[in-house]
């Protein structure tokens, strides 16, 4: 285990805004990127939080991530939008793409948003939460263009990314259901976090460079590379495949094929379906049915070794509530990497350190 810093949220916001300013971003972009990354940490997904900044800095310095870019519309077919993210920060591009789709779905009842060429969209649940806050159901199939990291079921090397799937369902007066996961056994960032913390990866998640099972997270982080496995054997593989075909081939016009390890940028393609449930069904009848089912499911008695049954979205909300009070734990290696990224972006690491309340 390496040392951990526990950083109060206000200090972390100030410190991370200082780092993001190094990209030359507008104030709105600084706010969007820092807020989204810290929110990923708050939800417990440290793999998609501020620890991504060093990678973003490398991508930016290589020209693979563009500051202050915005979504442009390639096809406007009313309830279908094809959008280009212009390699901009996914934290801005994702929000803009969802806002466009939300407006159309509120007018027409549904909208398909095909987004390509966005830099890393971070925690995909953020986009389902944005849709749910507007009263919309949403589905998101996402591909990842970066170094291939996940092996196909039965394959001995990596052929695609951690291709996340996400679905959100709003409920009036109650928290939405937000299902949001990588189709790999674990998100790639979790291997980076494990390596930085000096921990092993969970069993049955990884193969080494010879295709043999391993728990060493390094095989997903530093050469020689092995691969992550998909969850649920051929079923997760099938889902990852559909994320690549819908998010990649259909939405983005770009699938993972060649080895892109020299490039540090991470591009996401996202195929999203937004639906206004109130236009499809009687909203109160639908919600009464949904709530009755959720209560029924949660009433299942806990099995030995498990806590009470939770539904998707609850663990993230519990983590957010806890970390808002306690602060965000950041391991010392990740923190040093963030300070290193700040220096590369021309931001004084000592000022970032001080802003986080960690002394000079
Ligand atoms: N942008 C990208 O390229 C990219 C790629 C891969 C993953 N990601 C993101 O990484 C994040 C982490 O993914 P992951 O696969 O590690 O997530 P995970 O394995 O922690 O699963 C999270 C999902 O499972 C639910 N869940 C967790 N524990 C539960 C329990 N005990 N009972 C019921 N439901 C439970 C959560 O509410 C959530 O919906 C996600 O936000 C995902 O969008 C992004």
For the structure shown, list the relevant keywords.
360 residues; Hypothetical Oxidoreductase Yiak, Chain: A, domain 1; 3-stranded antiparallel sheet; globular; binds nicotinamide-adenine-dinucleotide
Explain how this protein is built.
This protein has a seven-stranded mixed sheet with strand order 2-3-4-11-5-6-7, with helices on both faces. Strands 9-8-10 form a three-stranded antiparallel sheet, with no helix packed on it. It has a two-stranded antiparallel sheet with strand order 1-12. A hairpin with a 3-residue loop joins strand 2 and strand 3 (80-84). The model has no long low-confidence stretch (mean pLDDT 96). It is an alpha+beta fold. It has a domain at 1-68 and 313-360: Hypothetical Oxidoreductase Yiak, Chain: A, domain 1 (Orthogonal Bundle), CATH 1.10.1530. The chain is globular. The chain is built from 13 helices and twelve strands. The chain has helices spanning 9-21, 27-42, 53-62, 90-108, 125-133, 188-197, 218-221, 233-252, 277-280, 283-298, 314-326, 332-344, 349-355; strands spanning 4-7, 72-76, 80-84, 110-119, 137-145, 164-171, 174-182, 206-207, 213-214, 227-228, 267-275, 328-331. Helix 12 (332-344) packs across helix 13. Helix content is 43%, strand content 19%. Bound molecules: nicotinamide-adenine-dinucleotide.
């Amino acid at each position: 285990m390496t040392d951990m810093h526990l950083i109060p949220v206000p200090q972390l916001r100030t410190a991370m805004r200082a780092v993001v300013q190094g990209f030359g971003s507008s104030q709105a972009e600084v706010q969007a990127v820092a807020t989204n990354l810290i929110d990923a940490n708050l939800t417990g997904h440290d793999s998609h939080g501020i620890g991504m900044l060093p990678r973003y800095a490398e991508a930016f310095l290589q020209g693979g991530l563009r500051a202050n870019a915005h979504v442009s519309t390639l096809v406007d077919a009313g309830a279908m939008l094809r959008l280009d993210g212009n390699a901009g920060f996914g934290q801005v591009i994702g929000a803009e793409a969802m806002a466009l789709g939300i407006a159309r779905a509120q007018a027409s009842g549904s909208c398909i948003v095909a987004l390509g060429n966005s830099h890393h969209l971070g925690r995909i649940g953020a986009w389902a939460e944005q849709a749910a806050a507007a009263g919309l159901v949403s589905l998101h199939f996402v591909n990842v263009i970066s170094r291939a990291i996940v092996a196909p079921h039965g394959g001995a090397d990596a052929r695609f990314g951690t291709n996340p799937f996400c679905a959100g369902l709003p409920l009036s007066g109650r928290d939405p259901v937000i299902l949001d996961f990588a189709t790999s056994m674990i998100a790639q960032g979790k291997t980076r976090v494990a390596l930085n913390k000096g921990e092993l990866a969970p069993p049955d998640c990884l193969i080494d460079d010879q295709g043999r099972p391993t728990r060493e997270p390094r095989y997903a982080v530093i050469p020689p590379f092995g691969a992550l496995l998909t969850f649920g054997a051929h079923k997760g593989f099938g889902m990852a495949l559909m994320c690549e075909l819908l998010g990649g081939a259909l939405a983005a016009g770009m699938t993972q094929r060649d080895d892109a390890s020299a490039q540090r940028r991470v591009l996401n393609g996202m195929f999203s379906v937004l639906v206004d449930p109130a236009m499809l069904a009687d909203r109160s009848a639908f919600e009464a049915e949904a709530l009755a089912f959720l209560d029924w499911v949660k009433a299942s008695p806990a099995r030995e070794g498990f806590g009470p049954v939770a539904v998707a979205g609850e663990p993230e909300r519990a983590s957010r509530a806890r970390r808002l009070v306690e602060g965000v734990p950041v391991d010392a290696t990740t923190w040093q990497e963030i300070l290193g990224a700040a220096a590369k972006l021309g931001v004084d690491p000592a000022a970032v350190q001080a802003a986080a309340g960690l002394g000079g």
